[in-house]
Design goal:
Number of strands of chain A: 6
Number of helices of chain B: 8
CATH superfamily of the largest domain in chain B: Recombination protein O, C-terminal domain
Largest sheet of chain A: 4 strands, parallel
Structural class of chain B: alpha+beta
CATH class of the largest domain in chain A: Alpha Beta
Function (chain A): May play a role in DNA repair. It seems to be involved in an RecBC-independent recombinational process of DNA repair. It may act with RecF and RecO.
Oligomer: heterodimer
Zinc finger (C4-type) (chain A): 61-76
Strand order of the largest sheet of chain A: 4-3-5-6
Domain Toprim (chain A): 84-179
Helix content of chain A: 40-55%
CATH class of the largest domain in chain B: Mainly Alpha
InterPro entries (chain A): DNA_Rcmb_RecR, Rcmb_RecR, Rcmb_RecR_Znf, TOPRIM_dom, TOPRIM_RecR
Distance between the termini of chain A: 72 Å
Structural class of chain A: alpha/beta
Number of helices of chain A: 8
Organism (chain A): Tepidiforma flava
Chain lengths: 202, 253
């Protein structure tokens, strides 16, 4: 019997829906689908409700473009956070990473992507205009670029620096160099060059 | 056993493109002189402590040790030969480098030796790294890329009958592959090229990238050359290169 006949249509649809999620291959999708249909109706219902509610209640913060339930988001509406510093990140998960470090007290701006000309992603696909608008109010003293230290991240940094230059704001970026626990012997030229440039007085 | 391909190959190559894959892997498109375009996977390179990470950045020229897989090769080792650090610190030069890499990917062939194409890309990236005008390097690369890929533009004589061209404005038809003389000029789409633009194209074909980048030309000639080469590439690729918009918005005056 062909596989399509052995799989009831609703399960097949569930498999296809799960397969569309990032990182889920066809086999994982099958396993998850069969797991879901074997759970209690309450559990499956709770999962479906969680998905629907998250999608319905989460929107973009009108200030920092992060995902939020309330607009403006908790960080943007917190008076204890310094409105003069904006940390620019690629995606919402990066906000969590910076928050986990626990030393940053400023606000954020989420670009929702990174300049990637080869994949056709240009500045018009990122929330750069919103960042320029925030900076042009004159309230911002420093913009910290916290994009990934990759080629695309660097391109984004250079582009943002260029569009912010007329506004006279200080643009900085995260230090780059050797990660903790790294092996000098294996470090590449770029990393070593940047680590030397960014060396610090002891 | 005779005839069996080696399981490991050592090759120098340029990373044309890198895409994330799975949790921490990256899919690479490499251009090598002896093996042409190779798709390879670099495992775990997106983790911060990954040793390979910086050696497999796009636009970087590295020495690779690849393990032959059934579909994709796997990067076993990589060591940077030229990271092109100066180029990567200049937005226009970087955009031009990405554009050249995209064109090289599109016109390269998988697993077939392409030493000329490889040399051309090495020269173009080196020129960008040395501070040559990004727009000039891009034009030079486009023209020579067409030539090494078998689409040489004929700009010294009529592409149809081979007749010598008078020193006058001429009709350039991308689909025909070059300039058509007054007698051969049929109802095909094309554009008029000034004498100066024709000379620039001829000079670009016989000069080195550094010589061409040092050439000063008026902006209207540069625009003519750019448009003619864009037509020619469009005729070959059947599509606009994805990275051209970004590059053009940065370099257009």
């Amino acid at each position: 019997m062909p596989e399509s006949l052995a799989t009831p249509e609703p399960i097949q649809r569930l498999i296809e829906a799960l397969h569309r999620l990032p990182g889920i291959g066809p086999k994982s999708a099958q396993r998850l689908a069969y797991h879901i249909v074997r759970t209690s109706p309450q559990e499956a219902e709770a999962l479906a409700r969680a998905v629907t509610e998250a999608r319905e209640r989460i929107r973009y913060c009108s200030v920092c473009v992060n995902l939020t339930e309330r607009d403006p988001c908790a960080v943007c509406s917190d008076p204890r956070r310094d409105a003069g510093t904006i940390c620019v990140v690629e995606q919402p998960l990066d906000v969590l990473a910076v928050e986990r470090a626990g030393i940053y007290r400023g606000r954020y701006h989420v670009l929702h992507g990174i300049l990637n000309p080869m994949e056709g992603i240009g500045p018009e696909h990122l929330h750069i205009d919103a960042l320029v608008a925030r900076v042009s109010t004159g309230e911002v003293r420093e913009v910290i670029m916290a994009t990934n230290p990759s080629l695309e991240g660097e391109a984004t940094v250079m582009y943002v620096q260029r569009v912010l230059a007329p506004h006279g704001v200080r643009v900085t970026r995260l230090a780059r160099g050797l990660p903790s626990g790294a092996d000098l012997e294996y470090a590449d030229t770029m990393t070593l060059a940047r680590a030397l440039e960014g060396r610090q007085e002891l | 056993m005779p005839g069996r391909p080696p399981r490991m190959i050592a090759a120098e190559g340029i990373v044309l493109r890198r895409r994330p894959s799975g949790e921490a892997d990256a899919l690479l498109v490499l251009l090598t002189p002896g093996e042409g375009r190779i798709d390879a996977v670099a495992r775990g390179v997106r983790k911060p402590q990954a040793k390979l990470r910086g050696h497999v950045e796009p636009v970087t020229r590295s020495r690779f040790l690849l393990a032959r897989g059934r579909g994709l090769d796997v990067v076993a080792q990589a060591e940077t030969l030229d990271a092109h650090l100066r180029l990567k610190a200049d937005l226009e030069a970087l955009a031009a480098a990405i554009y050249c890499c995209e064109l090289a990917e599109r016109l390269s062939t998988a697993h077939a030796p392409q030493p000329e194409l490889y040399e051309l890309l090495v020269d173009a990236l080196a020129a960008l790294d040395a501070g040559a005008s990004p727009a000039a390097v891009a034009r030079y690369f486009e023209l020579h890329l067409l030539a090494v890929s078998g689409y040489e533009l004929q700009v010294a004589a009529c592409v149809s009958c081979g007749a010598d061209l008078p020193e006058a404005e001429a009709f350039f038809a991308a689909a025909a592959g070059g300039i058509l003389c007054a007698g051969c000029r049929a109802e095909v789409p094309g554009r008029l090229l000034s004498v100066r633009a024709q000379k620039v194209l001829r000079f670009a074909r016989r000069s080195s990238v550094a010589e061409f980048a040092a050439l000063r030309m008026p902006p209207e000639t540069a625009a003519e050359v750019r448009a003619a080469l864009a037509d020619a590439l469009r005729a070959v690729l059947d599509a606009e290169p994805r990275s051209s918009t970004f590059f053009e918005t940065l370099t257009r005056p």
